[in-house]
Amino acid sequence: MKRELQVFLTAVMFFTKIPCPQWVDHSPEFLNESARYFSLVGIIVGSVGAAVFWGFNFLFPQTIAVLLSMLATIWVTGAFHEDGLADMFDGFGGGWTQEQILSIMKDSRIGTFGVAGLTGILALKFLSLNELPPLAIPFLLIAGHAASRFFATTLIMTHDYVRGEPSKAKPVAQKMSPFSIILSAVFGLLPLFLIPHSWIWLSLIPMISVLAYLGWFFNKWIGGHTGDCSGATQQLLEVTFYLSAVIIWTFI
Question: Rounded CA gap, 236 and 152, in Å?
Fold first, then answer.
């Protein structure tokens, strides 16, 4: 039990700013095993955003509450995935070979492609959430963070890890057992049952489509994935989920 707790806390330690006990170390073994809890970390992060939205929605207009909830999730994760998104846009936007792309993504500085891509995705997230009913937004935040992390985690199973980030402190799990995959799927998809719309499961279709395209795109240009690719995938799938929810609430 203590070992499994350490595996879970390893995921929390690597992917959030939530304090963990000192006996939780940076073991690569535990990091690989902790992949099964990435979706659960998504539930935690989404719950932080949901709580902030719910609390501030009583005091401010929905637009402000949504923005504060987004800032809360960025803070609790240390902008980990947002940083990966910006690096991915910079790398693939400015590089024409595998070596160039990986070299640009290693650079800690953010470029024009990164700024434009990050701004666009965050704006889409903000605008799409504001188009949704306030009572549904907390549940959508939890489900969006959990499901996007589950699908992003599947890159570990389907793609080789490209060692292109030795100079950056971005931990990456590089393998998953069948048990880990099943547990990650449970944590990733279970929050969908909380959403007060029976057709929300249709959102999985565009999410899987975007995931398949990104997987093909990464393979084509660099022959696999990196930590930045996984972070970018999580962000892109999260915003895909919210955009899908807007369509579902509008037309179904």
Answer: 9
Cβ neighbours for 58, distance < 8 A, ≥ 6 positions apart: none
* Tens digits of residue pLDDT in 41-99: 999 999 999 999 999 999 999 999 999 999 999 999 999 999 999 999 999 999 999 99
Are residues 168 and 106 in contact, defined by beta-carbon separation less than 8 angstroms? yes
Which pLDDT score is estimated for 167?
44
Residue written as token pair 């965050």: 122
- DSSP labels, 73-131: HHHHHTTHHHHHHHHHHHHHHH-SSHHHHHHHHH-SS--HHHHHHHHHHHHHHHHHHHT
138 exposure class (CB count in 10 Å sphere: 0-12, 13-18, 19+): buried
How far is CA 186 from each of CA 43, 80, 109, 192, 194, rounded to the nearest angstrom? Answer: 11, 23, 37, 10, 14
- CA-closest candidate to residue 175, choices 3, 30, 32, 20: 32
Distance between the two ends of the chain, CA-based, in angstroms?
Answer: 45
| Radius of gyration for the alpha carbons in the chain, expressed in angstroms and rounded | 17
How high is the pLDDT of residue 177?
Answer: 81
* Residue 161, SS3 per DSSP: strand
Hey, is 212 helix, strand or coil? helix
Q: Helix and strand tally (H, E) in the chain?
A: 12, 0
